[in-house]
Amino acid sequence: MTFETLLHQYRSVYYNFPQPLKTFLGTIYGKIPLSWRFGNHYSMHQKVLETFEQANEQFQLDFQYHKTLETLLFANEHIPYYQNIFREYGVTPKQFKSLDDMKRFPLLTKKDITQHSDALVTGVHEKPIAYYSGGSLSTPTKYFLPNSSRAKEKAYNNYIFSQIGYRYRDKTLLLKGREISVPEKDIYWEYEPIDNYLLLSNNYMNSEKFSLMYEQAVRFKPKFLFGYPSAVLSFMKQSRKRHLKPMDVQGVILASETVYPDELNAIFDFFGVSILTHYGHTERNVIGYRMNSRGYRFCNSYGLSRVVDNELISTTFDNFVMPFINYKTTDSAVGVIEYYPQSDVARYVENIEGRTQDFLVTDDKRLVSITTMCGGQYLPLESIDALQYVQKEPGKVTVLVEGAHIDLRKVKEGMHKLVRDGIDFKIQQVEKIEKTSRGKRVMCKQFLDIEAIRQSGSTVITEGGRGCSQE
């Protein structure tokens, strides 16, 4: 067991340490080389990535073919779900002769994972570790990944972030991740010494506490800003509203939500620095990035990235716990797509649209990003098939939950842990959450004018409501 694996298991204990103790221990730990903390897997993936990126096209094609075959062979030998579905489709790994043959194999959906989770997991090589889908999904999903996947993720993220000049542990202002506010103590920020982050509370970004948060950020003197696009935009708008100067940073890193061209331009105009947009998934089977507005480039040694009917379809490399084969990400490739020869394997796409920027409104007109509500550790996901937020007035949200044997009390308690304060959740179990005419689920039905609230704090009711976060 590596240092990082051990610490990750007790991260909730670490988070609750007093800040001076956390700063002391975290700073010491953060300075330990990543190859020591994460073990051999970090160095291995770092070397594989560097070799792949410098190699010619034929080497890259051969690499992807052999890694895909490795996944197919493992799944066929150890995963009951794939044994059954391959038999049903009449395919075997022996029929996989080229990357184009992935068309023969069945697709995997989030619904398949939810319904057949036990048959998709094995502990034959590594202990399965549970992860949960982010808040932009209307159907919460529980995944299992190997411990070693964290080392791989760190190696690839550090490579991607280096494209904008970031070096590990550069001072970074973080506007994403877990909610760290403690309103009763008037605390809306937290220093994370391991990665050298200063976290600001996204849930208080458009509140009267913003000036205090901004002062903390200026005092921290970050080199980079890293956050959800929605949070970065809120930070900008609140700065303008209070006539505060733009943060003096060397670059901005965006992640976890779709960012649109006009938003990208607005962020560039405000900060005047390069912007890197990171693309990845909790499932850890596809990863890529975009510099400014030049389009997304996939790191194809990470996983197989196919585009089928404009949808990104991915296949796992190196996951010998719950491999994903022809996984439907539900994210759309838009515009120009560059493929490897004689295949539907994409190395570049002009734009990716998927996860959206949706908000709930607190009673004091704060905006809470749906993306922050990825509370697998707080919600009884094993009994929830789907959920939907409905809001018609500030501070009051009805949460529709679909599924059998749901503990509504636990759902309500979990929602309050995710938001902390400002919203009274009414939990309502329903037999079925209606889909759109195109068969998509809607995560949030918001009847309030979010932009008007963001700009002025006023409440405007929209006619009919706004559907968002469709799956």
Question: What is the secondary structure topology, with strand pairs?
Answer:
Layout: H1 3-9, H2 11-15, H3 19-30, H4 34-37, H5 40-54, H6 57-78, H7 80-89, H8 110-115, E1 128-132, E2 142-146, H9 149-162, E3 172-175, E4 189-192, E5 197-200, H10 210-220, E6 224-227, H11 229-241, E7 251-254, H12 261-271, E8 274-280, E9 287-291, E10 296-298, E11 303-308, E12 311-316, E13 327-339, E14 346-353, E15 359-361, E16 367-369, E17 386-393, E18 396-402, H13 408-419, E19 424-430, E20 442-448, H14 450-456, E21 461-470
Parallel strand pairs: 3-5, 3-6, 6-7, 7-8, 17-20, 18-19
Antiparallel strand pairs: 1-2, 4-5, 8-9, 9-10, 10-14, 11-12, 12-13, 13-14, 15-16, 17-18, 20-21
Q: The biggest beta sheet, please?
A: 12 strands, mixed
Instruction: Enter the CATH topology name of the domain at 40-154 and 281-353.
Output: Rossmann fold
Helix fraction by DSSP (H/I, runs of at least 4): 25-40%
Number of helices: 14
Strands ordered across the widest β-sheet = 4-5-3-6-7-8-9-10-14-13-12-11
Percent strand equals 25-35%
Textual characterization of the structure:
The chain has 471 residues and is α/β, with parallel strands linked by helices. Among the domains are: 40-154 and 281-353, 3-Layer(aba) Sandwich (Rossmann fold); 359-470, GMP Synthetase, Chain A, domain 3, CATH 3.30.300. The protein has 14 helices and 21 strands. It has helices at residues 3-9, 11-15, 19-30, 34-37, 40-54, 57-78, 80-89, 110-115, 149-162, 210-220, 229-241, 261-271, 408-419, 450-456; strands spanning 128-132, 142-146, 172-175, 189-192, 197-200, 224-227, 251-254, 274-280, 287-291, 296-298, 303-308, 311-316, 327-339, 346-353, 359-361, 367-369, 386-393, 396-402, 424-430, 442-448, 461-470. The strands form 4 sheets. Strands 4-5-3-6-7-8-9-10-14-13-12-11 form a 12-stranded mixed sheet, sandwiched between helices. The chain has a 5-stranded mixed sheet with strand order 19-18-17-20-21, covered by helices on one side. Strands 1-2 form a two-stranded antiparallel sheet. Helix 13 links the parallel strand 18 and strand 19 (424-430). Helix 6 (57-78) packs across helix 7 and helix 11 crosses helix 12 (261-271). The mean pLDDT is 88.
